[in-house]
Amino acid sequence: MLKRHWLLLFTICWWQLTIQAQSSIIPRPVAYRPDAGVFVLDADTRLLLTEPALAGAAQLLQRYVQEAGVPVAVAASSGGNAISLKVDSNRVPDLEGYLLQVTSTAITLTGHDLAGVLHGIQSLRQLWQPGNARLRIPACEMTDHPRFGYRSMALDVSRHFFSIDFLQQYIDLLALYKFNTFHWHLTDDQGWRIEIKKYPRLQSVAAWRSATLIGHKKETPHRFDGKRYGGYYTQQEVKQLVRYAAQRGITIIPEIEMPGHALAALAAYPQLGCTGGPYAAARFWGVFDDVFCAGNDSVFTFLQDVLDEVMYLFPSTRIHIGGDECPKTRWQQCARCQQRMKALSLKDEHALQSWFVQRIEQYLNSRDRQIIGWDEILEGGLAPNATVMSWRGEEGGLQAAQQRHPVIMTPETHVYFDYYQSRRNREPVAAGHYTPLQKVYSYRPAATLADSLQRYIIGLEGQAWSEYLVSEQQARYMIFPRAMALAEVAWSPDSLRQYDHFLSRLRGQTRLLQQYGITADNRFDEVVLDKVTTRPGAVLLTLSSTAPEGAIRYTLDGSMPGLNSLHYTQPVVLTRSATLKAQAFDRLGRAVGSVLEQPVTVHKATGAAVQLTNKPLARWDPGSEALVNGIQGTHRYNDAQWLGFSGSDGEAIIDLGSEQSIGQVRMNWLNYHWQRIWAPVVLEIAVADEGKSFKTVFTQTHFGINGINPVKAVIGTLPVRYIRIKAINKGLLPPGEYGAGSQALLMIDEVIVE
Ligand code: TNX
């Protein structure tokens, strides 16, 4: 008997401990205090509804509980255990805040407002442990409210189309992680996706493209799938989605792009372009010269008509009007645009764009709406009431805040989820760059902005551009879990942000994510190459993994790492060329993520001193050491190994420290014209002895490969101490080339001396 008691007590304690350990909410609440006891939600529980304004919230909670397998009823009074929902803005002073009190007999959820109640419901969902027609909720008290009032995720439905089912699921996920806005990017060069009754050709023509690019746009020749692609949302569907989102506390902000990214609309109504066409919706990705004509009044009639229908469908106070990436090429040649500039005394085409945006702003303001525009709307003067969405880093946002405009931060350096989250080869083709989960989590919005201006930063948004989100499954893979890291940055106080803590809560969300078709694999725990340093003649590789209680095992002989391979405890030192293969294992010896494979070349210049004449562009500057650190870059060039010179020549002098005889110098130049990356116009390699009088030993002017161009210069028998590499940059890109008029990027990774 006694024994049985002990066993029971032990079981209860263990059960409570596991439940508490799993009480892992994302985003992390402002205050969470676990208490003793457990509330058991079963068929006898009632959802108490005393305030009619909360009927929708109660129904939503009821639906969630039912989906979790428990049939519960909403009632006005209750005898047994109950969950009651309330609004009390005195008790809960912060906008969107809530107080959640769970005891073993009752749950009380008090919101500052309806939004607060909805957020509290999502916390409750993350707390409960399903099982056997009941949900167990650990007793606790949670006080919570958001850091930023605007917390949003975007989705581009133009480049790829997403079903209404997918969008509903997306909204469910956004609500689950306490976002309050969905920015719906509805129009772009590749397709117009919203029904506008007054302009039927937007449906019959602009919604369709004749084919879609296969693979990454940097690869040439471009290949197309030959399949007509498209679709649009009917106004009926839009209305339903807006309602669906509102029930979950999410505002949908539509984006109608102008004056650029308008090719699909021009295909339907060519008279709205400067040249009159003909135009066709784009089949590949990028920025296109054909934009709305700024000199033609019928363009404004069209846009105002479109916006009228948009405003009728979307109650959001803010409407996004785009404003990004609008080349001025056509406007410069267009008599009507030039005439407009003259009539209004506008000094250049930037001023014309600014005027365009302001004219639209006035129209929307007169109907009690405010515009949001991408940070390009700062160029040529900001429209008086505009909100700026800062995407090319934070610069634009900071400037707009100085001008006392509301700002939404969405820097591509941290929150573009079309960028790679892992550097492994097996990753599906993505836009480029490298934004792992940890980088998203580390984002500190507007950290350099004066306190007095912080209030202009109204919030944050994550981007999901869909050029390479070719399926719904892939979109989920790219967006989650990174959006959850962003959710925490946007909601939780800075002081509570700890990456390890976040990861442990993320691991606790596996079941919930699976409900939404998100395989919560452990790719974020895989081994990464953190740092490469050198000593003369040696390369040091620093590895890390966030796998809890895990171990990293590695090999240098080409074999696959297993549990008996070398145990990583400190940087791996290589004095000879080899390929490092490393794998993280968890506590139970199971492989976490995939194998890191890193070839390393140790050569005569490894760790040598490098002197650069010009500085690489900040974004492409891993430090001059990267030229001699033994690691070559990949064709994704997102590995912090490539040095990129924008417009300027690449010139480096490598000092071997003493005279030596060398056989050859090898290096790679990148050539991706569709990414504005151009190999040198002229490459010259010169060598010198101690006396520093350089002799040119090699020149090359032709780089024929689209991608990585290997160069090998045979040196002969000269005694060499210094090696000078001089690469002439293409400079301004010529007309007819992608990015014409902008600066070419010259990129080199490693100089191997043998
Ligand atoms: C830039 S972000 C764009 C989009 C592309 C995206 C790809 C912005 C305002 N414009 O049109 O889809 O890059 O990452």
Which helices and strands occur, and which strands form pairs?
Blueprint: H1 2-21, E1 31-41, E2 46-49, H2 55-67, E3 73-75, E4 82-87, E5 98-102, E6 106-111, H3 114-127, E7 129-131, E8 134-144, E9 150-156, H4 164-176, E10 181-185, E11 187-188, E12 191-192, H5 201-206, E13 208-209, E14 213-214, E15 223-224, E16 229-230, H6 235-247, E17 251-258, H7 263-268, H8 297-313, E18 318-322, H9 329-333, H10 335-343, H11 349-365, E19 370-374, E20 387-390, H12 395-402, E21 407-409, H13 412-415, H14 437-441, E22 457-462, H15 472-479, H16 482-491, H17 499-507, H18 510-514, E23 528-535, E24 538-544, E25 551-555, E26 566-567, E27 572-574, E28 578-585, E29 591-600, E30 609-612, E31 643-646, E32 650-661, E33 664-671, E34 683-688, E35 695-700, E36 707-714, E37 719-727, E38 745-753
Parallel strand pairs: 2-3, 2-4, 4-6, 9-10, 9-22, 10-17, 17-18, 18-19, 19-20, 20-21, 21-22
Antiparallel strand pairs: 1-8, 5-6, 5-8, 7-8, 11-12, 13-16, 14-15, 23-24, 24-27, 25-26, 25-28, 28-29, 30-32, 31-38, 32-37, 33-36, 33-38, 34-35, 34-37
Helix pairs in contact: 2-3, 4-6, 8-11
The protein binds ligand TNX.
Residues 156, 324-325, 374, 391, 416, 418, 431, 465, 467 line the site of ligand TNX.
Beta-strand content bin: 25-35%
Helix content: 10-25%
Question: What's the main sheet like?
Answer: 8 strands, mixed
Low-confidence stretches: 9-22
Shape: globular
CATH domain fold name of the domain at 609-753: Jelly Rolls
